[in-house]
Amino acid sequence: MDYLAGIDLGSTSLKAVLYDLTGRVAAHASRPTELVHPYRAHPDWAIWRPEQIWGGVASALREATARLKPPAKIHAVAVTGMGMDGLPIDAEGQWLYPFISWHCPRTVPQQQGWLEHVGAAKQFAIGGNPIWAFNTALRILWMREHEPDVLRRTDKWLLIEDFVNFMLCGERATDFSMASSTLLFDQTQRSWSQELLQLSGIDRAWLADPKPSGTLLGHVHARAAQATGLPEGTPVVLGGHDFLCGALPVGAFRPGVVLNVVGTWEMVVSTLERPVLTETARASGWWIDSHVARDRYAAIGSVVAADMLEWFRKHFGFEEAHQARSQGGVDWDYLMALAQSAPPGAGGVMFLPHMSGSTIPAVDPQSSGAFVGLRNIVGKSHIVRAMIEGLNYQFLELIGGLRTALGVHPERFVAVGGGAQNAFWTQNKADMVGKPFELPAVEEATPLGAAILAGIGVGLYRDEADAFARVYRPGRVVEPDLRLTAQYAERFPTFQRLYPALKEVQAQLRKLG
Questions:
Q1: Considering the entire predicted model, what is its pTM?
Q2: Where does residue 410 fall: left (phi above 0), alpha (psi -120 to 50 degrees), or beta otherwise?
Q3: How many CA atoms lie within 13 A of 6 on its CB side?
Q4: Could you tell me the CATH superfamily of domain 251-305+401-445?
Q5: pLDDT per position as a tens digit, 196-205
Q6: Residues 86, 158: contact at Cβ < 8 Å?
Q7: How many CB atoms lie within 10 A of CB 152?
């Protein structure tokens, strides 16, 4: 049998998944990703230990490869996972400092300096990035200020996927999608930006050469083969950023197909044929990356989503938790049944889902959540339904931004992630948008996307379209109730007025403490 390996470096787990060429999982293993807070003087500083990242990957690979029955051939391996986090290595390949995790706040001063020195508009016009405190360039600047001896000994700064590739085959490189997360990449030229390097004072020599995803990088060397169970000489192919890899097996690498990733955060990913680096796109909260699909770009909008439902469940879901214990099932089912029992429009209640600020279409981290329209006839069912509807009105704003800020006209919607399996949430979203939502029956889409790139890199698939045709498995399709679509279209302008109407009041509340 012929197999491809996908390695997924997540913030919770390190996964090794082996697939056959039709995308079926043949073997799977995972290890926890261990977040560490080792600094007594800075208890909020967070790191990943390189030995644990590599050790967890190697251990998971050993377990997965041991499950294959001969004759089995692993044709190639590729890595995907989180962005931004990286570490310095010296000329001999020894790491000099642990990964500073994206959880770590230590680079907030560097973020402020970048905003003042480079500026949000220039950054977006070159790299398509918002400026987050955990962007890679800011870690390098922190190192220059606080650990200058480390940088003097640094040969390359490797992002976390690139580090695992280096441990597998000894090559030092990155891909376009990962380079997009650094603040140093020129999206138009698809190379390191000379202007941003000059403004920041970051040495180009520290940065690995960027290449397209799907590029054959090297081959598993003897030491890595012994550690992982992968055969020596197995081709190592460049993967890419996790959510973009996850777009490949569900067909969301084609213009017009919108990928909706639903979880703690909700992401909308749409494929572009060219980078849209306009001030309108930036001001609307979008960011632009190079896609893992060859010669494509991605527009990404992200908002906090299920985290707010978890907040409600934790603080107000006691009855549903008791029902689950006494009657069986899970408390979420009872909460969603409660929401479904309320009428569309939630009895006049609306929820502004800004409990963690607003990222898009209004970029306002200081905004707060709110319930509006509460009366003494409103019950818990109305509140839960209003939260679901508020999250989906927020989704409508995202889709509207695709049209107005990026000129994208969605034709198909594909939903993945744990939140997409919430039947009421997804049905209500389809009702609001007025379009079907496809929920593919694809197993582990993110590492499968890495495996697809591995297959492209060694010629087992001609391209992304060929791979998609061979691995895609249609699942459930959620059809909209167009009568409800019309009702929500009437209510949507009222929702859009909530944020501007409450902005000044919320600012006053923050001042009052």
A1: 0.92
A2: beta
A3: 35
A4: ATPase, nucleotide binding domain (3.30.420.40)
A5: 999 999 999 9
A6: yes
A7: 9
